[in-house]
Amino acid sequence: MRANFRMQRLFVDSNLGPETAIEASAEQYNYLANVLRLENDREILTFNGRDGEWRTRLSFPTRKRLLLIPVEQIRPQPAASDLHYLFAPLKIGRLDYLVQKAVEMGAGHLQPVMTQHVQGRINSLEKITANVIEAAEQCGILSIPSVAQPAKLTDLLDGWDRARRIIFCDEGEESQNPLPSLAQIQERKLALLVGPEGGFSFEEREQLRNLPFVTAIPLGPRILRADTAAVAALAVVQATIGDWR
Q1: Beta-carbon neighbour count of residue 191 at 10 Å?
Q2: Does CATH place domain 9-75 in 2.60.40.10?
Q3: Domain 84-240, what architecture?
Q4: Quick one: 164 exposed, middle or buried, by C-beta within 10 A (0-12, 13-18, 19+)?
Q5: What's the gap between Cα 24 and its chain centre?
Q6: Where residue 173 falls among pLDDT bands split at 50, 70, 90?
Q7: What is the pLDDT of residue 2?
């Protein structure tokens, strides 16, 4: 069932059940009451990543308090996406965009990867998680993608589950069409690896291309920015072997 995009959606940490009042946080109160100017008995949609999506009534017992009262489950909780997204951190601003678009495109697990030419860094996993939640609220998904601690590329590859195929966006690939390579992939467990602004080093490319659980794909004839490449790669993977089919 597709999301209802006409109603405001809000992520909550609490369990969701019929007529179980949830005290809104100060931030939620400010957003719903002061920014959106929603009043008593107005309804929104709430989700927590566990209990599906609920039609929820707003109740203001006092001028400074807001209760969220789940009324009816609108959508059951689906299985979480199993697509792992491995990305080299970008500079502030572009990193926020990359995380949000990865969530919108169906990534279920976000893994920052430190490569030789990486130019960005992860200052706060809490900020990334906040971006993940905001993207989930906007795009209608009910599961919140997990965010892992940054890891060096070499360490990640050394401990990799070989049953999960890595699709590696290789700017040095001779062809321009990713479809033939993607069509040969049989595994259901997938990960997508996108490099930094400076690209992968020669040594990293050689290591990746020599691993049996890695498939290199091109992304067309043009040089793409790292954040553009992320969206393009996620789109082509989802359309060919992902959940768009």
Answers
A1: 24
A2: no
A3: 3-Layer(aba) Sandwich (3.40)
A4: middle
A5: 25
A6: low
A7: 67
